[in-house]
Every structure is written in C-alpha cells, then in structure tokens.
Amino acid sequence: MEDLKKELKVKIIEVLNLEDIELSEIGDQDALFGDGLGLDSIDALELIVLMDKDYGIKLSDPKEGREIFQSIETMAAYIAAHRTK
Fold first, then answer.
1. In this structure, what DSSP letter does residue 36 have?
2. How many whole angstroms separate alpha carbon 7 and alpha carbon 42?
3. Whole-angstrom distance between the N-terminal and C-terminal Cα of the chain?
4. SUPFAM superfamilies, per this entry (predicted)?
5. Which of 4, 19, 64, 69 has the fewest CB atoms within 10 Å, i.e. the most exposed one?
6. Structural domains of the chain ordered from first start
7. CA-closest candidate to residue 46, choices 79, 69, 64
8. Which residue in 15, 17, 6, 21 sits closest to 73, CA to CA?
9. Rounded to 5 degrees, what are φ and ψ at 81?
C-alpha cells in the first residue's frame, strides 16, 4: 500500500503539473481539494482520467469521486480494492 501511495503522489504531481510541490509535502491524510493540496474541478477530471488509464477504474458518479479523492489514503484504498490493471 505504501508503494501505491508513493506512486499516486508521483502521478498526481506529473499529471497535474505541480512542479513546485515535492513528494514529501503531500501527506497521506492531507485533503486533495480545498485547504489541502488545493486542487479544483479541472484537476478532478484529470484524476478521473488517471484512474481509468492507469488502473482500469471508470468513475461515472461525481459523488463517488468526492469520496475517493479525499486524500491519497482514500485513493489508494479504492484503487487497491477495484483496480483491473
């Protein structure tokens, strides 16, 4: 699970072009949106594409996305349980 969390942090930094953020600055429990990492709705769409492309997980319900994208911890747990790739 720790490897998956690190992998997610690397991919989020790359996909969302967050060049000014280091891996160590993203905590596993930190909020990804709002006061945490400060991601927005466009970033959420990029995360949905990343989930599909890299892990074979298709998200269609926005409410589901809100739950999954709360933190690195919640993303990793969902991916571990549902990945097809």
1. S
2. 21
3. 15
4. ACP-like
5. 19
6. 2-16+29-82 (1.10.1200.10)
7. 69
8. 6
9. -85, -25
